[in-house]
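Worked example 4.2. Below are the chains of a multi-component assembly; read each line carefully before continuing.
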Amino acid sequence: MTSVAGMRNAERRTRTTEGTKPFDVQRVRADFPILRRQVHGHPLVYLDNAATTQKPQVVLDALTRYYTDINSNVHRGVHNLSELATEAYDGARTKVRRFFNAASDREIVFTRNATEGINLVAFAFIRPTLQPGDEVVISAMEHHSNIVPWQLVCEERGARLRVLPMDDRGELLIDQLDALLTDRTRIVAMSHMSNALGTVNPIDEIVRIAHARGIPVLADGSQAAYHMPVDVQALGVDFYVATGHKLYGPTGIGVLYGREKLLEEMPPFLGGGDMISSVTFEKSTWNALPFKFEAGTPHIEGAIGLGTAIDYITGIGFDAIGAHERDLLEYGTTILESVPTVRLVGTAPRKASILSFVMENVHPHDIGTIVDREGIAIRTGHHCAQPVMDRFCIPATARASLAIYNTRAEIDALGAALRKVHEVFG
Amino acid sequence: MSDLSDLYQEVILDHNRRPRNFRRIDPASHHADGYNPLCGDKLSLTLQVDGGSIADVAFEGSGCAISKASASLMTDAVKGKSVDEARSLFERFHRMVTTPPDLPVEDMGKLSVLAGVREFPVRVKCASLAWHTLKAALDRKAAVSTE
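Applying the procedure described above to all two chains together yields the following structure tokens:
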């Protein structure tokens, strides 16, 4: 397994908030109260981070503080609490903007999750002008949330979904991208990192190929955003989506980055309060960016919690996070490959933090149940990426996914539990 | 690990390794496909019903040990039975796997090995998929999903 260093160098930029303290995984673990609990009489070994990550105490405290100190609606009251809540909510947006290095806060729209961000682009950017015969290009490794929204708009308008294939290691065949693009291609939408395989895709290269033909690019950062620094300007993407609950933040809060010029041209996605500047029964006019896309009372504490989570991540720094997670991935690869009949699925040269695997004559669900009794949480199934499973001719995989608080000892525990699985079914 | 060995009893492991009646009846008088979208388990059940009795029954598909063993045990259990008897077995099996683990359940002979699934709520669907598919086939429904 080679590292993702090449990609990281390409994406690295100056960051004033990088952590300065040496990385100590035990100190990090102490920040996450849930890691102290037991499951089935064993210490919890949480290896389902690609589904959602655990939350540090500072994030939990931020949620409590919001409700105990400043709970109020945003952007409407003149009273003190409303001012404080608005300041905290919009302050969180500024943190997100810095985290993704967007040019302006106006380019950061809060959504419920990454899925909603993709839907917003599909319905407000693509659908209004989508013609029969137009094409949307995605990749063979997308999860359902970067497939279904495009299918919905394509089916409605008689447009066509086209798919960039991947090889047996789970690497996209980027060489074939240019040939897939035509003058009917309206957008290229691809994941920055695969949730089922761990593959990290060369978004900057995809952008270069698509932009050469004037085609905009959306990158799905659901998985990438908590493993590596993301600079939307360096990548050159037109849209980037991420979800808060994988960034060690609360559920129900996500982020859509959109290039300001494109967001300006787009009609609203949802209508309601906060997204208007004036309303009469004859006509309403839209609020300025990003509020045009944030109808109704937003997920205020979610945004504040996400801002706190981002402070937490940048306090540790992606240099330390990347080094720690690369070590775990390499160690985990070695340990899993040493278990009889285990075969890794997804072995691209550029991958991060995902160990997807199958075992001979054992269904992943049986693996999941047996390791669960050892207190080990892994995901089993199709990972909301059924076409990926079909591509590898398997019904499902077991998946261990890594985060900042995981340790080599936890990988050892997984290895031992998998040997038990082999004993039961061998 | 005692509860794990309740789930993965030798009979279950054996039926998983060597499923009985693992084939397709063609032509069949009844058939249905069962699908568990959570697991990706797929099961295709075919039956030959003659004069109200199940002359032959077979299944194909992919799934976990519990769903495969349950399908295998079920085909053995309903073969030669009347349709009414099979429906009654469905009801009894369903009651057995959905009764809370601390309460006693009826002895269903060989099928009782699946009572251990009660300790594993998320796996109850795996054990019942074949039975729901059987019911769908007898009711002349083409497909059933456990979600």
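Take a moment to check your reading of the output against the notes. The interface with chain A takes residues 1, 3-4, 7-8, 13, 16-17, 38-42, 62-66, 68, 120, 123, 126 of chain B (CB under 8 Å). The domain at 2-145 of chain B is CATH 3.90.1010.10 (Sufe protein. Chain: A).
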